[in-house]
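Q: My labmate handed me this sequence with no annotations at all. I'd like to see what the chain might look like in three dimensions before we decide whether it's worth expressing. Could you predict it?
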Amino acid sequence: MSLEYGLSCFSPAPGRSDGKIYYFVPDEVDLTRPAALFIFMHGGDGSSPDTAPYDTYLNPENGCLRPHIDHIPFITVAASAPVEIDGKRWNRSAAEKYLLDIIDDANKRALIDRDRIIIGGHSMGGFGAYHLGQIFADHAAGVWLSAGAWQISDFRSFYGTNVYILHGKYDCASAYREFHKEPRHHDWCGVSFARAADKLMTRYGVEHTYDEHDGGHGLRWEPAQMALKRFLKWAEHQKRDPYAAKIALITPRGSADPEMSCRQRSRYLELLEAGNGRITYDKIIQTGPNIAWTVDDFCRQGYELGTVDLAGSRIIAENTGNNHFIIRAENVVKFNLYLAPQMGDVNKEFTIDCNDGKIFKMLPEKISGDPDYCAKITISL
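A: Here is what I predict for the chain of 381 residues:
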């Protein structure tokens, strides 16, 4: 069924026997031409109903994404989260296939510009955005991380994809008052997660915007509504770049909350064979009281950064121009480097500068069937 202007709901959700998927098409979208797509993952917990995208975010009376999405040149799609045992419903393996099913469903219902897909979420959906955003950064024009959390990550997975971090300064507190009956838990979605992610992305040179507003957790807060407008304005200018000069393939990747994903491909890198070693990931260590009953408790909440070694592989590739790549690979035996005319002259030899001064000079092999690349080089280390 094709999309119409306004709000539509379909059930069951794609790839499932239950659930709902909602679409909102504003008047600014021309359905006769490829349109940008905003994939929104809703918040809540393990008991949130399949109407949660509408109840809190999309309904025209008080949905916190309205009226903002009424006036952007995007189709917004918001599906109910997979059913799981707890509130980490966007972070498990079922959500990976589900996200791809959502993109496929949108392509069946409308003309979608595959280079203008924004992946994002808030609260429980923000957890999912930290996770799925890393796994599918190569599918996205941009990733929005709102009031979410992560545990163990390598944010270099975002290389080549712009990121927008949005978080309330007072996210751990339900109110500004000295004492309140329902305080926020630091480990749910405290601002420390966003501050730590910002610090690490800055360290690694990951292109991102950090927007810490003066509100709490909910998007209905006035400061959050203003930040939401800033994010959506930012989103309009993002475009997927399959030929980004610097990218990384990290496997497994995600937020390790509760698990990461072993996807073997990202943009123009494909892991063919890994070694038996380990690589180092960053982790957040939260400090201070977990539950903020008072303002003093809240002010003592903070974080430290640590590392952990896990079984995995990492390839970081930089296209320096003139058919030359610098590649640093950890725990990698064999990989593919895919190429396109936008990356160099695929009819001529490429020089690949790898680990420990290993220099490979190779003529690409022509391939077919890949939507972005027309040649490849296979490298054994």
